[in-house]
């Protein structure tokens, strides 16, 4: 039989946490001091993003996607968005901690873009999603990231978001890659060679034919 090896890890507070490989407390069991082992307190997950939404400068929803059941009903989602807007719309910060969640956000003219993660999520990871979303929309909307142009190009905005996040998992954080993938889904060629209207029309036709199949 192999003798369990004694290991030491650094806990969240900087102290050492000892345990034996193969001989530590099992799932749901406490250690000698009654505390759960550090490794059980925070399990890694691919599901980084809880929600992405865009509001206008009155706090009204323009676009939103939720990726878990934290806010299962539309009423709860709208209330959450309103509270987040009230907390963030008059500040110069880019990060907020609200309701046990980490929220990164950006204001552009009359739009507020938000990316929501759990309280222990890496802010830089969430910020990379926000930056990619903004720069991709800026490209699709010809640098007019404002309410009027977003409403006229909502199909393209959803295509962009779907290429960045799927089911809460971050797929892409490079705006150029996102634009290429959006364009590939819409039509052959590149966005720089087609008007936004052409790309969106192609996307609508693909959706129509997929429904008819």
From TrEMBL:
Asked whether the UniProt record includes Magnesium among its keywords, one would answer no
BP GO terms, sorted: intra-Golgi vesicle-mediated transport; intracellular protein transport; retrograde vesicle-mediated transport, Golgi to endoplasmic reticulum
Q: Kindly give the SUPFAM superfamilies that the UniProt entry links to this protein.
A: SNARE-like
Compositional bias (Gly residues) spans?
11-31
- Region described as Disordered: 1-34
Identify one Gene Ontology CC term for this UniProt entry.
Answer: Golgi membrane
Q: Which Pfam families did the record assign?
A: Clat_adaptor_s
Q: What InterPro entries does the annotation carry?
A: AP_mu_sigma_su, Coatomer_zeta, Longin-like_dom_sf
Signal peptide location in the record? Answer: none
Keywords noted in UniProt: Cytoplasm, Cytoplasmic vesicle, ER-Golgi transport, Golgi apparatus, Membrane, Protein transport, Transport
Q: Which proteins does it associate with, and in what oligomeric form?
A: Oligomeric complex that consists of at least the alpha, beta, beta', gamma, delta, epsilon and zeta subunits.
Q: Which family does it belong to?
A: Belongs to the adaptor complexes small subunit family.
Name of the featured protein? Coatomer subunit zeta
